[in-house]
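Case study 2.
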Amino acid sequence: MTLCLGDSFEVKRKMQRWASAVFSLGGATALTMVLAKNIVKVPQAEAEAALDIATPDVQDLQLDKVFVLFRHGSRTPLHKFPGESVKPTVWSTKEHCSFMLGEFDRKLQLSSPCGGDIQPKTTYAGLLPGGCPRGYLTDVGRKDAVALGIRLKHSLIGPNKLLETYSPSDVYVRSTTFQRTIDTANGVLHGMFGSKGKAIHVSVNANLRDEVMIPHVRACPLLRLMFKEQRKIAMKNWIGTEPASHLAQQLGVDPSETFPLHLRDVLTALNAHNKPLPVELETDHVQVIDSMATSYLRDSLLSKGSIGPTLAIGRFLAEILDRMNNDPRKLFLFSGHDTTVMPTLLALGIADDDWPPFCADIRLELYSDPNAPDRKYVRALYLGKPKQMIFAPSVLCPFEVFTEGIKNVTPTDYNALCNSVEISEPVSKSDFH
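Prediction:
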């Protein structure tokens, strides 16, 4: 199994278009997949007829593997409100970044599958008023992570569950190279397996360009174009709104100096830590900002149909499929970002209208039928609730259908697809992760 995936990762199979894709399931009759809301869906009746089996009850199946992808916990903001009239919010080290949970007795052992020294990143250099770094996991964020770990423990760890306890031969943990995702992984592991015991190995790609868990918007010209085009549309729509005029007047700036994505970042961080808003905003103003920021991210990823999710997260989903088939371990934990969770939700067709909250988690469960070992199924859960994937005939998806659904969003040649368009204008790195 190739672990150093990076920009050279390819799946040796021609990528099929979502608008009209035809595939064969175990030699059965080919199914025609139709485009629905930019994502392919297999009609239930046809899928069940092709597999010639009735969908079983999940309680009658054996849980073999679980893949959990989660966003980091609550953090300090990446941005600030524009204008000189706003009094800066204080993020004190003692109150927010003292890591009051203390050092865990069980340590993390970081290593890079591609080699190189791991130097955990913060999104920005420099400190906020009060001493906390920008974009840093706070004490609240660590508690978020521990709470997620406890919730996962209740359903996955213990007698007659997926695992009895932690074993390095059964558990794979991966984090992006950002300090907040590494710290979140630590908190989740603490909640699942406790703070005492041997060090837990965590895989971290030392080179961010080798990481397939995040969309490389600045390095991929086609993705960059998609986000650039949607940013212009989003800004045009935003400037004409009442919240934009209200904020501009309060801040003493032109409406073009504000952007919903950046405003939402600040507002979400303040809300997570029960901090007051730096300016007066009506509830409906906050809702407009949240809705427009979410639309910007979603529309950027879907502006060219399946191409956005394919470039943003397709290689990572291909890795999960590979591990379902070939990795003997049982539990796989991936610590990422909102820009990891959202493209995955879109690729699976289970996205709602909301931005993924802090510590949002997607779970993919692989089951087998004890009465027919060659029959396998995949169930997706988001925020702990089962979801029907858009290409699946039901909540419990036959593995063959899941396989083809993932292959449809796997780039055959990532670099070639990224470079199918050339643009020269940069995209701000501050918009992502």
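The first helix runs from residue 44 to 51.
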